[in-house]
Amino acid sequence: MPKINLHKRDYLDNISQEDALTELQNKLAPKMHASSRRINRSPNLTQRHVDYRWKQLDNELAKAQLLDSHTQVQMSDYSKNIEFFIGTLKMPIGTAGPMRVNGLFAQGDYQVPLATTEAALVASYNRGANLITASGGASAMLLNEGVTRTPGFAFRTLIEAGQFVAWVVTQFDDFKLLAESTTSHGKLIDINVNIEGNHVYLVFEYLTGDASGQNMVTIATNCVFNFILEHSPIEPEFAFLDANLSGDKKANSQSLRSVRGKKVTAEITIPSELIGKYLHTTPKRMTEFGQMTTVGGALSGTIGINAHYANALAALYIACGQDAACVAESAIGMTRMELTKDGDLYASVTLPNIMVGTVGGGTNLPSQKACLDLLGLHGTGKSQALAEVTAVLCLAGELSIVGAFCAGHFSQAHHKLAR
């Protein structure tokens, strides 16, 4: 059977001629002349520095949009969150809800703010949220939490690596004192040791209170890391503060079974008649869709199985001042849909890497704080509830998008709302 491979374009096909090779060389060669686009003398946020940057950018239309009068009034609020500041970006925000959450920490009906430029997205989450509420709400349970940083040490031999580990495992109390001296909220709770040949990876795991905590654990681990370099009886050949075992901002299979951030599971059982009313399909068809897409995910090498956690996470993270890059790891998880003996739909989600905080980072910026205030989840003691709300939001999105595919409405909805 012939392979279908229509209109494939390979840009390298066009450079075999001598004149094309010369042109390619000219385009790709280093250009060493001074740039006329340099605008930054200092990263600081002061009126003088901002005025200088806009003078160099010389674009009044862009300035009017990015440095409006409201932004200028609030400018100092951004000084700890940005370098080389030139203004603020406006994004549309919609709300999905009411979304009923019956959690260990989150209790109630939530209107969830979502910042996105993708039409049909908020409408989809709103539909899923209303279906959840009509079914009595979703149960949500925070299972675990912790944030890691993983320094790595290289030695000449496995024997040296073993001697180093033998010393490290006697130092936990000292490491804990050092790490916690750098933070009033973080707690070092565990250190896992991984030996790979003559390399040693130490996984430092922390509780970070109500902060998301990436910067917190970096600073704390750096203090311990420097202590190790100064006091270890076995000197490493080389060492680095992070050796890429933490899974920070990367999709990774390790985190699927453990935790980075907050691990939450949520479930709901939805009567068949409500599936028909809200999603215009049946529980049986939705479970068939789940079976086929689970196999498809396995064939593609997907880590975890879900339809589109990333949509919910990106929109919520941006709205609520979270680190949007953490969507790379947070979007790993498992969605399951099963037919109950009564013909209803059981659906669950488990997300082991929800990286959210309700203090610190971007949570105190004006617009982002306003979104957390809409949820009633800004400030101390609220991060666990935010994680449970996040998981139920992902569940709402899974129900809605699977329903749309099963009812044949997915393309129709985007055609109607996104064009």
UniProtKB/TrEMBL annotation:
Q: Does the keyword Oxidoreductase apply?
A: yes
**Which InterPro entries did the record assign?**
HMG_CoA_Rdtase, HMG_CoA_Rdtase_cat_sf, HMG_CoA_Rdtase_CS, HMG_CoA_Rdtase_eu_arc, HMG_CoA_Rdtase_NAD(P)-bd_sf, HMG_CoA_Rdtase_sub-bd_dom_sf
GO MF annotation terms: hydroxymethylglutaryl-CoA reductase (NADPH) activity
Parts forming coiled coils: none
| Protein EC | 1.1.1.34
Record CDD domains? HMG-CoA_reductase_classI
| Entry keyword set | NADP, Oxidoreductase
Matching Pfam families, A to Z? Answer: HMG-CoA_red
Q: Which GO terms describe its biological process?
A: coenzyme A metabolic process; isoprenoid biosynthetic process
Q: What class of enzyme is it?
A: oxidoreductase
Family membership? Belongs to the HMG-CoA reductase family.
* Record PANTHER family: 3-HYDROXY-3-METHYLGLUTARYL-COENZYME A REDUCTASE (PTHR10572)
Q: What protein am I looking at?
A: hydroxymethylglutaryl-CoA reductase (NADPH)
